[in-house]
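Researcher: Structure prediction, please.
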Amino acid sequence: MDIRAAVLRAAGAARPYADSRPLSIESVRLDPPGSDEVLVAIKAAGLCHSDLSVIDGNRPRPLPMALGHEAAGVVEAVGPGVADLNPGDRVVMVFMPSCRHCVPCETGRPALCEPGAAANGKGELLAGGRRLHDEGGDLHHHLGCSAFAEKAVVSRRSLVRVPDDLAFEHAALFGCAVLTGVGAVMNTAAVQPGQSVAVVGLGGVGLASVMGALAAGAAPVVAVDLFDEKLALARSFGDLLTVNAADPDAVEKVRALTGGGADVVLEMAGSARALDAAWRMTRRGGTTVTAGLPPPDAVLPVNIVQLVAEARTLKGAYIGDADPLRDVPRYIDMFRRGRLPIDRLLTRTITLDQINAAFDDLADGRTVRTVVTF
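Model: Predicted structure follows.
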């Protein structure tokens, strides 16, 4: 079948993207679902820094590629072997398919699925190969999803069924921003009631982390960002403190607000400088968690004596160490009970044809989550 999709053919286009148009909206051919695969009609797809990092060249991926990885939609058809989803079911896409058989999957860490990571790196689906084509040949899949499109064929292992009454523009956010941000708090850092938490970087993932910290009972919670508008948005979530990262005394102010440093500091800005600040905001014996993805050559110098003598912990969090089959339903329930006000992450909705200009806004830090709706 023919569908419309946003295709990236070359990375590193000049800004503004509204003029250079790195994403071309094209008619491409989509194969029917194969074994253990599902055809999904995309209804909403969020713009994330993980997409932007492919566009600007900071995250090299095989090209040409149909982008998009944070999405929700409706099952249209299922391939052989899919018995637990049916046409009409609402689903959220997860950007790391989990085989459930490799060592990480069997030991409770499906976010680190080895076949899933290998397939994502090749731009293929979990079963191998590509289902998108144009006149020049195959198009690569972005993280097994390629969701900036009218429809997508994905592995069954990339989908979680969600309630029928959950709005698509909200459901989409659970596949990346919420899983990563809330998961980093609850799974990676295992924040406990009464612990102090600071979050550096208030994009969609960072603001989800703020929500997760508040839901976990952390106190105090300090939100840190360069934009006063995002700091104001964070304060609307509940009882927390804010510090503007542009303040030359930002680190010292966070340490003062948390009584000598926070128990847990989460870096969500995707910058080595931000991670260094997060490390310095962390108290003795505390934990620094990063889910940011800076350019591949970024490094963090760490004083080893400080690491040892202060019994520090530095951890990475990929997809918030989530088990999507467990965590997506859990976080949706928390959203419905008012503990995770995920709807406040939504900045605006756009059409597919407006996507290049919307990535300019994301790159400039002017938006939290813009969602393409179909």
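Model: The domain at 179-320 is CATH 3.40.50.720 (Rossmann fold).
Researcher: Thanks, that helps.
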